[in-house]
Amino acid sequence: MRTTVEISDAQHRALSALAQRRGLRGFSQLVQEALDTYLGDLGSDEVAVLLGLEGTLDEDDERQVRDRIAAVRTTWRAS
Q1: Phi, psi (5° rounding) for residue 7?
Q2: pTM
Q3: Distance between CA atoms of 77 and 35, rounded to whole angstroms?
């Protein structure tokens, strides 16, 4: 799945350098490894709580969240 994640210039440079050393074209694999490590370090109870949050917003809250996301997206840099 594709997604957009904001990272600092320093993080981008570090990931690019590490990917290059590993002979990778991009750094998606590195991000996946980092996420697997992070999620693996969470306790199973914490993961269950986070997964249990899916679908907990009512329609009004959902609309407010979507509106706020849309507003923030207008300020994203395209690079």
Answers
A1: -130, 160
A2: 0.54
A3: 24
Supply φ then ψ for residue 65, to 5 degrees.
-65, -45
42 Cβ contact partners less than 8 Å away, ≥ 6 residues apart: 50
Q: What is the pLDDT of residue 73?
A: 81
The C-alpha torsion from 21 through 27 and 32 to 34, rounded to 10°, is 60
Q: In which band, very low, low, confident or very high, does the pLDDT at 10 lie, cut at 50, 70 and 90?
A: very high
Asked if 27 and 35 touch (Cβ cutoff 8 Å), the reply is no
CA distance linking residue 48 with residue 60, whole number of Å = 25
- Report d(CA 55, CA 58) in Å as an integer: 8
